[in-house]
Amino acid sequence: MEELLQYVEERKFRLLRSRLAEMNEADIAEFMEELDDNKKVLIFRMLPKDQAADAFAFLEPDIQQHIINSITDAEVSKIIEDLFVDDAVDMLEELPATVVKRVMRTAGTETRQLINQFLQYPENSAGSIMTAEYIGLKKYMNVEQAFAYIRAHGVDKETIYTCFVTDGQRRLEGVVTIKDLLMNPYEMKIQDIMDENVIKAVTTEDQEEVVDLFNKYDLMCLPVVDHEERLVGIVTVDDVVDVMEEEATEDIEKMAAMLPSDKPYLKTGIFELAKNRIVWLTVLMISSMITGSILTYYEAAFAALPLLVSFVPMLTGTGGNAGSQSSTTIIRAMTIGDVEPRDILRIVWKEIRVAVVVGVILAGLNFIRLMLQYPGETLVCVTVVVSLMLTIILAKTIGCTLPILAQLLHLDPAIMAAPLISTIVDACSLIVYFQIACHLLAI
């Protein structure tokens, strides 16, 4: 990177062009992002034609917009025609309407129609992330004819390693790989070697279901059909990786009690970040007032024995952590398909047993510590450790059930994560603690 930047500063553009021609398009895009706006356009125009569109697809939307606004209609047309359809659609979804109109005006009729078709699919559906650049074969072809077709038409396709067999109405009939073709004689018919048991998705399926299919069957690409079983595109593994990153980021943000954001952190304004966080902060602040109400209700208890108050942070903190562990484990297991809502009784039973084991160990350690720290206060020590034990059991039960209940209510289980679980468990642990204290200590 430093070498390239030095070439730019010293205006050694011939050396720079030669060096860029050897680089991967993703690295070229990373290099361009380090430059000022004028030099970005200069470097883009310097790229060989076969690299320009590929590098353009890796750029951030704001840089894409700047380049489009700085080049001619002919250059814009070249970009949109050279981009894979899924990359073009992703770009247009991020650009302002005025820029989109210009891009669509410069695109060819066929490209424009194809992009419009893709833009009509529901957001975050299989149709919205697929591409139309695939190899389609016919079952009456032999291996030699299939290779000839791939050589003639494969140069502009997203992938040629998996080919799909369709009939005259584009209905999907089978799938054949390059390995299958290589391992069979030239005269063998496609219909004799193709796999008719095709794993596929429908255009309206959620993109998370597409990710699940890739994970389950170790796919490199997945055919996408319409409701009449006609092949309309494929989803490739690079798009699935993007979806996995997007979904993981969204879940992490929800689990941290924030509204998801599509923009990179450094390019998100402070007011937008604040807006994404303030809603849940307000909800959690108001719900935390319940804890204060509980403390007020039992004011007489800790007025009679002030020592009780010193154990509240330990109880609420341990309870919150225990509940967060369970909720995080269950949310992750639900995400990767390890558990289903119908498993709720097995999950609760397992978490209760885990809570008993963990609770006994923590209660034992605390009892020893408290007896050494407060000799003669045996009943107080018993009150604390019994409360701790019950708090952990209660926290893990709540932590494992709330995500499942959220899914049953068609909500995202990720919202039932650490902050919300901790707030609920805090209130429950205080009630348990002071009820036990009132009965055992006769306050």
TrEMBL record:
It is a multi-pass membrane protein. InterPro entries: CBS_dom, CBS_dom_sf, Mg_transptr_MgtE_intracell_dom, MgtE_N_sf, MgtE_transporter, SLC41_membr_dom, SLC41_membr_dom_sf. It is found in: Cell membrane; Membrane. The chain crosses the membrane at residues 278-298, 352-372, 379-405, 417-442. One of its GO terms (cellular component) is plasma membrane. It comes from the Bacteria. SMART domains: CBS (SM00116), MgtE_N (SM00924). NCBIfam families: mgtE (TIGR00400). Homodimer. PANTHER family: MAGNESIUM TRANSPORTER MGTE. This is Magnesium transporter MgtE.
